[in-house]
Amino acid sequence: MTRYLLRRTLVLALSLIAAGLVLFVLLRLLPGDPAAALLGVGADEAQIAAARKQVGSDQPVPVQLLHFLSDLARFDLGRSFVSNQSVLPEILTRLTITLPLTLLSFLLALALALPLGIIAAVRADRWYGAAISGLSQLGLAVPVFWVGILLVWLVAVEWRLLPASGFPISGWADPVAAIRALVLPVVTIAIVMGASLMRYVRSATLDVLGADYLRNARALGETRAGALIRHGIRNGAVPVISVLGIELASTLLGAVVVERVFALPGLGSMLLLGIQQRDYPSVQGVLLVSTLLVLLIGFAADIAQRLIDPRLRDPAGRAR
Amino acid sequence: MHILPKLALAVGASLMSLAAAVPALAQADPSAIIRIGSLYEPQNLDNTAGAGQGINEAFNDNVYEALFRLNDDGSVEPVLAADHTVSEDGLTHTFTLREGVTFHSGDPLTAADVKHSIERVTAEDSKSSRKHSLATITGVEAPDDRTVVVTLSSRSISLPYNLSYVWIVNDAAQDISASEDGTGPYVLDNWKRGSAISLKAFDDYWGEAPKNGGAVFTYFTEAAALDNALLTDALDIVTSIQSPDALAQFEDTDRYTISEGKSTVKEIMAYNDRVAPFDNVKVRKALARAIDKQKLLQAIWGDRGMVLGSFVPPTDPWYEDLTGVDPYDPESAKALLAEAGLGDGFTFTLDTPNYDPHPITAEFIKAELARIGVTVNINIITSNEWYTKIYQAHDFQATLQEHVNHRDIVFYGNPDFYWGYDNPEVTRLIEEAEQAETEAAQTEKLREANRIIAEDAASNWLFLFPQIVIADADVTGYPVNGLNSQFFLRDIQKTN
């Protein structure tokens, strides 16, 4: 396991560097001049040249790349072209919104999807099992921004129960206000994410229900529920965990839509603004940090699967 | 047992609080924090660093003051300049500074600070959009602590106006892109990038104390989220509404006040006047007459905004109603085209920025011009493409754009500007206006230039955006015109 961890960590670091290189090159291939975008109508060539010099976009691309890599080695993500502030502290501040938003949504989605998915599978022949399945189909079909807009209209504007948008300027210093600001976005994501997770849980459970080992367990005298809990969940969990990893990662990246609907100053809105303004360091920084997080999620999912399923750990087993 | 006295106490207390609340109903609360919603987040805190209009909205005259102020009605008045004298030849301006002014850091205001502040804008590597208008400044001297002498290469009647954009910054302040040290009635309290800026009243302000305790500007990228915040009472006021569709939600006049002011935002169809057929004044006039601008404005803004006959909005001193020069008249438009040898019409490409209201405006124009036999190919572009293709490379036939600045008729005096309008008479008038000895003479010259530009149909001026501010009914004293995106806070009052 130790060797495996070391190898995975190395792969993670290399993936991150590769992602950084690709990002760097792709951003420079995009049309548009960040200096001109910075200055707007009324700027003359001399001013644009001065701006290029200041942000370093007058340098040849290989030189810019060298700067980028040497900064990266020192965990410095550079300075924003637009605000001239370091990118990393801003990313960290925004993560204090995006991370809780993503994790809370994920936990809530899981809390909805696990029991409902299992019920939908075990009681597939009853009306409520079918109803749960139908609801999850519906949840899959609606776009996340539409759910958000609907919740805002109902809960915030009509009922006045929760704030419709924004995040307290003092951040988490006032935890109650911060949590209140996150409730609607979290519920929005959880509804959509929970619906898709529920489908996976349901089909994984259906697979397990038809498995030989479960029939054996029943034959050895276990009740259906007991067999499912002792053997089924553990086996069904392995495929579900990789789906969970993917869902968590895509929620992190997809938070941009929800952040926009609810005017939350998270990582997603920073990315969007950075793209609009051709602010390469901001965009690079956000994408690198999100890549790192996604890689870490994949890493954690792998480890979790190995802990649950000994066959994956065994060199003679299926995987390696 | 104990319940009765407690009950009596509670009743007494609530009666007392009721009594205290009654006079408060009608009274303004001088410590109230005004919660403002805006779509224009500043990207840094320095208006000379390409920070966008948001920083002017939050900081002009609130955090930083200038020698002069551009008021909401378009007039200019002295602020930090107590006295201003001009030499006979108009080339030397002497300013005496107001006494008793201190920066937020406690440093007193001196002439050296003013010199530093002006030179920051005119410096070689300055990125200020105002650098051009101050190009005639050849030197700034500070002979003593209270006196600033500005020397010019040629007369500049607009100097006080142009100085209204120059924030007076403490020369000892370090990087002001993330902090501030101004002399205004408010100090920066907190800045959360991507989200909000809060200001609080400055206790040692030299002038009259503001009528509120401070303000929080909250920034939105989505207009709907901004509207929702006002609907759910998370905001007191919204600085400008960009879509009339939102207005219906606020029509309950007991709760909200909708004010319509005069903006300086002009929606125009600019031609490339260098290229055929737009180098022909008859073609330009034909297109001006072929578009029913009143109908276009109605479609986009309902009853709000106004049709313009030229580039000059009513808050510029040289405004004149020139809508009669080329009124809507498709028949005469056809005749003009025939005179220009284009009786069978022609085809051109209209480069259209991809955001509101340009695409819908382009569709309208396309339909209108089809009636006089002119075919429009709409080419949707990003604002970034607009800068490189149109603004920098002049590679276009016609384009839509919103021009936001106040007093920007001077663009028509620059033949190298993107639209390539080149009339030596206009260039001369605009230059002479700047060198006029009196404001009346300046105004007369610019009126004349404006009439020529309108007669030449240099561009197709479609309409002036309305400036719509929505506020809670208990909030008063805010600026309604928002010239140059300024949003003066000091007179805003909130009653409870």
UniProtKB/TrEMBL annotation, chain A:
GO molecular function: dipeptide transmembrane transporter activity
ATP-binding among keywords: no
Membrane topology according to the record: Multi-pass membrane protein
Keyword S-adenosyl-L-methionine attributed: no
Domain ABC transmembrane type-1 span(s) in chain numbering: 95-305
Record key words, sorted: Cell membrane, Membrane, Transmembrane, Transmembrane helix, Transport
Protein name per UniProt: ABC transporter permease
Lineage: Bacteria, Pseudomonadati, Pseudomonadota, Alphaproteobacteria, Rhodobacterales
UniProtKB/TrEMBL annotation, chain B:
GO biological process: peptide transport
Signal peptide: 1-28
Compartmental location: Periplasm
InterPro entries on file: Peptide/Ni-bd, SBP_5, SBP_5_dom
GO molecular function, one term: peptide transmembrane transporter activity
Keywords for the protein's UniProt record, in alphabetical order: Signal
Record domain Solute-binding protein family: where: 76-401
Cellular component aspect of the GO annotation: ATP-binding cassette (ABC) transporter complex; outer membrane-bounded periplasmic space
Entry similarity comment: Belongs to the bacterial solute-binding protein 5 family.
Protein name (record): ABC transporter substrate-binding protein
Organism: Paracoccus jeotgali
Higher taxonomy: Bacteria, Pseudomonadati, Pseudomonadota, Alphaproteobacteria, Rhodobacterales
